[in-house]
Design goal:
Blueprint: H1 11-20, E1 23-29, H2 34-37, E2 46-55, E3 61-74, E4 81-95, E5 107-110, H3 118-129, H4 144-151
The structure holds zinc ion.
Amino acid sequence: MSRSLHSWYGPSDLDRFAERGVELEGRLEIKQLSRLRDMLHTDAGQVQVKLSFGRGDAGWLHMSLEYRTTLWLVCQRCLEPLEFEADAKVELGLIESAGVAIPENFEPVVLENDRLRPAQLLEDELIVALPLVPKHRTVEECGQLARQLVNNGARATRDSH
Ligand SMILES: [Zn+2]
């Protein structure tokens, strides 16, 4: 099932999806999202995804994208893992060129050669949803992993100077 999210869909597929109000649902492995994984502390886990297609008044293609996952970012203050819940529903207008007018409450997505690869679009959305500078909420939360290691008796051998 998740294989289909990695496929490319051309104009005739997308027309059919829109006419039938098709829903695609599945899970994507985070490790298969190569641009996103480079931004993470660990690439373990999955993203739960649901797409549903339709058509707007003027004929443009409409797609709802829902996703839910937990990502492990790197805190830019202490460089330790930081949990980030990514959970959203976005309304997209799939258009052939940037000039096509769609309502304001839809986010325009220009299709590459009139084709759509859901996994790629999802990855774009997740990357945009990440905080610009990921950080633990408070300084106190920072470095907890390092402190635990010290408390557990692991000696922090620090050569002075
Ligand atoms: Zn931190």
